[in-house]
Specification:
Blueprint (H helix, E strand, L loop, with lengths): L3 E6 L13 H10 L1 E5 L5 H10 L3 H4 L5 E3 L21 H13 L1 H9 L17 E3 L16 H7 L3 E6 H4 L1 H9 L5 E8 L1 H9 L4 H24 L4 E5 L5 E2 L2 E3 L2 H5 L7 E5 L3 E6 L4 H14 L2 E3 L2 H6 L12 E5 L3 E3 L11 E2 L11 E4 L7 E3 L3 H9 L5 H5 L1
Parallel strand pairs: 1-6, 1-7, 2-17, 5-6, 9-14
Antiparallel strand pairs: 2-16, 3-4, 7-16, 8-15, 10-11, 11-13, 12-13
The chain binds zinc ion.
Amino acid sequence: MSRLLYVLVDAVRHDYVTGERTPYLASVAAKHGRSRMRPLLGYSDSIRAAIFTGAYPDETGYWMEYCLRPDETPLAPYARLAALDALPWDFARRGVKFVLSQTLVRRTATTHGYKHLSLRHLPFRSLDQFDWTLRRDMSEPGQLAVPSLFDRLSDAGRGWAYLDAAKLGAKTLLRRIDELPTDTEFVFVYLHHVDMASHLFGISSRLFERTLHRTDALTNEVVERATRRLPGIETAIFSDHGMSPVDHVVSYPGLWRHAGFPHRFCFALDATMVRLWFHDDDAQLRDEIRATVAAAAPGRFLQREEIIELHLDFGTRLYGDEIYLLEPRTAIFPNFHSLLKPKAMHAYHPDDLEQQGIAIGLPSVDGVTNLVDLAPNAARILGLEATPLALAG
Ligand SMILES: [Zn+2]
């Protein structure tokens, strides 16, 4: 029986892995080989979808946590709170949304069959436009257009475990490894600490360095315990992306206050992207909004060929008509997602070297491994049948 352990150490950049900073990872890399992990353009959720399925966003249909879906959104009643958009302090607006999301919005979620629902930091008056993209967890069957590794293992009646340090804590996670059923064939461990420390403290802080060192040691512990529990288990360690320090923070007060928003045009602010929807053919409005977006931050509107190349050509308007992608090291705050100002960010162009993660013990081409290679690699080692996607293609 083949067994496989995947350890995902979130946000460990390829150049962090040295004997001094991450002695364990460096020793494994020396033995089993290393490459750079090329991320995709997107945030952690779309990246996880690609890791679990081996498919890109335009194949799974999933890119962002929320999308423009005015006819279906259960958040529409909250648009009546539009007057609160005029609260003078952004942190007060964020605070109100945080409290509502913990209380009333939870009831709305239950009523409408959503597992998760939040106002995040969407402008109140746009809440009749935006909907939560998935009603259930993406790991539940049928949520993504492509079945995940976990679906396929379950269908084949084979044992697997997904252990998330952010939910379990390190101690419980290690204990769960010790207690894994001995017929478990695939173990996926997710360690979030480096990503969190990067956003909160920045990547040149002492706290960050300590977190990196500790996560390296925790990875060692995870692999040792898994090997003890499930002898002969093969191991690969990888991160999902790198990280850039944030040197400049930009904001878009003109968009938040624009009289044409949200009924003539809509915008979504992610930390590293501005996405736009135009609801009519008014060229003047389009030029004005595009100019406002471009003037505030270095970046570019992605052209169609590039959108196709990045696997973001959805054939729907859910995620935006246009995407303005910022240059690395600049971030948008306030944006629709972050509660705190990030000191380091990912989700810039995947070819930027700072954005690339590490892959240890994984196949690569010209020193690069892609996120979508992980699921097929696991399927091969575990002897799963070819994916339906590969058969269809
Ligand atoms: Zn992150």
